[in-house]
DNA sequence: TCATGTCGCTATTAAAAACGTAGCAATATC
DNA sequence: GATATTGCTACGTTTTTAATAGCGACATGA
């Protein structure tokens, strides 16, 4: 499963999550992701870009069509996660 | 996002995926996961078990109720991933 | 024009995680 | 008692992530 390999890297899911709402600059993204190191952020962004899930726009980094489609499958997971976290 | 932190670790998604269909023993799981090292597999299993997503049964490792619920949200992602992989 | 600030990102060094292989203890099978 | 399988640990190596500093490009304002 190629996708799981890509998403199973640190911050990959978080980056998609944060970009889903709005375009973010590198530094904005960095501060949203609980201070991920710039090295890792840049590496993940490169990976996500070559995977065609994220791209660069004037306003910053944004999800591509594929990225948005992926997020739509990921989104219900967020709601579920909230309940689940509470039950730990 | 606690869930993303847990799932954003190597093999975590793959383990859930493989356990979704049937119960698997440690070694079965190991061979399904493209020869993940036993060290990592055991670490992931511990994490997933304390997270209440996976548990041990007679027949091997299985998803808990929460694990199954999570997988149901994850499943459509698999179909999507197949199409997406093709379009790379 | 020159200081000041922000931005995207690289460099570097250190710590943590994952890998790969060997193998042990326990249980089952013969 | 010999052999095999299972779950898992040990351990040395490689890869990934973290943490921090800071550079070059560009904007702003004095």
Structure overview:
Two copies of one chain form a homodimer. The first copy, chain A, has five helices and two strands; from the N terminus they run ααααββα. Chain A starts with a helix and ends with a helix. The first copy, chain A, has a single domain (2-86), classed as Winged helix-like DNA-binding domain superfamily/Winged helix DNA-binding domain (Arc Repressor Mutant, subunit A), CATH 1.10.10.10. Chain A has a two-stranded antiparallel sheet with strand order 1-2. Chain A is mostly helical and 88 residues long. Chain A has helices at 2-7, 12-21, 26-32, 38-50, 65-86, and strands spanning 54-57, 60-63. The model of chain A has no long low-confidence stretch (mean pLDDT 93). The interface between A and B is medium-sized, with 29 and 29 residues. Chain A binds a DNA duplex (30 and 30 nucleotides) through α4.
Write the layout of secondary structure elements.
2 copies of one chain form a homodimer.
Chain A: H1 2-7, H2 12-21, H3 26-32, H4 38-50, E1 54-57, E2 60-63, H5 65-86
Antiparallel strand pairs in A: 1-2
The structure holds a DNA duplex (30 and 30 nucleotides).
Number of strands of chain A: 2
Most extensive interface, residues per chain? A-B, 29 and 29 residues
Structural class from helices and strands of chain A? mainly alpha
Q: What composes the largest sheet of chain A?
A: 2 strands, antiparallel
Gyration radius of chain A, rounded: 13 Å
Count of separate DSSP helical elements of chain A: 5
- Distance from N terminus to C terminus of chain A (CA atoms, Å) equals 29 Å
Taken as a percent bin, the fraction of beta residues of chain A is 5-15%
Strand order of the largest sheet of chain A: 1-2
Oligomer: homodimer
Which whole number gives the mean pLDDT of chain A?
93
**What is the ordering of alpha helices and beta strands of chain A?**
HHHHEEH
CATH top level class name of chain A: Mainly Alpha
Say what the CATH topology of chain A is: Arc Repressor Mutant, subunit A
């Amino acid at each position: 499963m190629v996708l799981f390999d890509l998403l199973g890297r640190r911050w990959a899911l978080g980056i998609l999550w944060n970009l889903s709402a709005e375009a973010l600059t590198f530094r904005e993204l960095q501060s949203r992701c609980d201070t991920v190191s710039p090295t890792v952020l840049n590496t993940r962004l490169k990976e996500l870009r070559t995977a065609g899930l994220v791209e660069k726009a004037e306003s910053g980094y944004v999800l591509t069509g594929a990225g948005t489609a992926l997020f739509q499958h990921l989104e219900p997971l967020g709601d579920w996660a909230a309940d689940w976290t509470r039950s730990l």
